[in-house]
Amino acid sequence: MLQKLFKRTPLAWLQLKKEKTRLAVALAGIAFADMLMFVQLGLLDALFDSATKPHQTLKADLVLINPQFQTLFSVKSFPRERLQQTLAYEGVKSVRPLYINTAQWRNPETRINRAILVWGIDPINPPFDFPEVNQHLGVLKQLDKVIFDRASRPEYGAIPDLIKQKGSVETLVNEQTIQTIGLFQMGASFAADGNIITSDSTFLKLFPNRQPNQIEVGLIKLNTNADVERIQLQLKANLPKDVRVLTPQEFAQTEKDYWGNQGIGFIFGIGVVVGFIVGIVIVYQILYSDVSEHLPEYATLKAMGYSDRYLMVMLMQEALIMSVLGFLPGMLLSMGLYQITFAATLLPIAMKIDRAIFVLVLTIIMCSFSGGVAMRKLQSADPADVF
Questions:
Q1: Which residues have C-beta within 8 Å of that of residue 242, sequence separation ≥ 6?
Q2: pLDDT tens across 183-225, in order?
Q3: What is the pLDDT of residues 229-257, one digit of tens each?
Q4: Which pTM was predicted?
Q5: Residues 304-330: tens digit of each pLDDT
Q6: Phi/psi of residue 275, each to 5°?
Q7: How far apart (Å, rounded) are the C-alpha atoms in residues 267 and 40?
Q8: Strands 195-199 vs 113-121: parallel, antiparallel or unpaired
Q9: Smallest Cα–Cα separation from 355: which of 379, 374, 327?
Q10: Closest-CA residue to 150 (of 159, 142, 141, 137)
Q11: Are 46 and 349 contacting, i.e. CB atoms less than 8 angstroms apart?
Q12: ∠ CA(82), CA(80), CA(73), 5° rounding?
């Protein structure tokens, strides 16, 4: 059907390009609307991607957390013995405790304190799948040694450069002297501007009020052929109710649900809706003006025997052509904005194929809807107007 339509004289394209200024304004408006949608969707994905990046690097088949746990950045503890109890179940190979808390990091250059997320691990049995962390496990066994996240915000200081120059950097964390002896990369997020990893012993030294038998996350590694779902059900049924048993995917979903329920997802969603409405208004104004100016010509075509259906299809072709031509610059400009946003915030924001397809579909719907509304003016074209 489409092939048959486009074999005809391309009236839709000829009419659009006749008014080059109007076409340029329409494409700029569509590109702007697409940019609004791309930026809002990109920031929303960056929120979820950055918040769940730690979950993706944990070496675990099952995870234990406190039932009141909502986010890694406001953690609740539970008894470490619950993690040890899971070793009694068939199929459980090993367990790893993980301590998490927020501390005050002092910038070694400006002497300004800033909150940073601290991860306390067992250097003998590390929970993260970071090759750079594994290279420093031997040194981490010593007290007051930490590894710094190179993707942290620059407000913490030029730590990567200082380590490259001196080999290590000394500063204060919670008013205690520590030595940064290496780097890894996890990335900043909406809630945590930076991260450091240290041993469980150093962690407890930095937080003297913490009890060693209280942990934030328990990681369970199963045997190769173990039935994850069966063991999860067993643990849920038999462990006390002061812990939840989740898969890593469910653990990450808990984090997404927390941020989604904070209203941030709603705010970004409103931005997408606003961009969609802006695009509808702009395309409608362009098409309506075009139809109004050429109403006598449309009436002439009707007098020659062209049906309303043919004219409406031509108008829809104009809308589709504008949607595609406006989408391309909108996507390219959005990619540039993503790079600027990443450089300014270090959030993991980048163009994704599924997002590009989604915005393209929204753009086509947006332009088609505008064309459908403008058709009402086209239907008023009367052959009698020619005479």
A1: 66, 67, 78, 79, 82
A2: 998 887 777 888 999 999 999 999 998 888 999 999 999 998 8
A3: 999 999 999 999 999 999 999 998 888 88
A4: 0.76
A5: 766 667 777 777 787 888 888 889 999
A6: -60, -40
A7: 9
A8: parallel
A9: 327
A10: 159
A11: yes
A12: 110
| CB proximity list for 377: less than 8 A, separation 6 or greater | 288, 291, 292, 295
State the first-to-last Cα distance of the chain, in angstroms, to the nearest integer.
35
Would you tell me how many other CB atoms lie within 10 Å of the CB of residue 23? 20
Measure the CA–CA gap between 261 and 101, rounded to whole angstroms. 22
Backbone φ and ψ for 145, nearest 5 degrees, come out as -115, 135
Whole-angstrom Cα distance, residue 200 to residue 141? 9
Beta bridge partners of 172: 177
Residues ≥6 apart with Cβ < 8 Å to 275:
33, 34, 35, 36, 37, 40
User: Identity (one letter) of the amino acid at 377?
Assistant: K
Cα angle vertex 70, ends 173, 261, to 5°? 120
Average pLDDT value over all residues in the chain: 84
DSSP 3-state of 199: strand
Question: Residues 378, 308: contact at Cβ < 8 Å?
Answer: yes
Residue 104 has a pLDDT of 94
Residue 182: phi and psi, rounded to 5, are -170, 180
Task: Return all residues near 365 (Cβ < 8 A) that are at least 6 apart.
Answer: none
CA distances, 134 to each of 106, 138, 182, 188, 198 (Å): 25, 8, 11, 21, 12
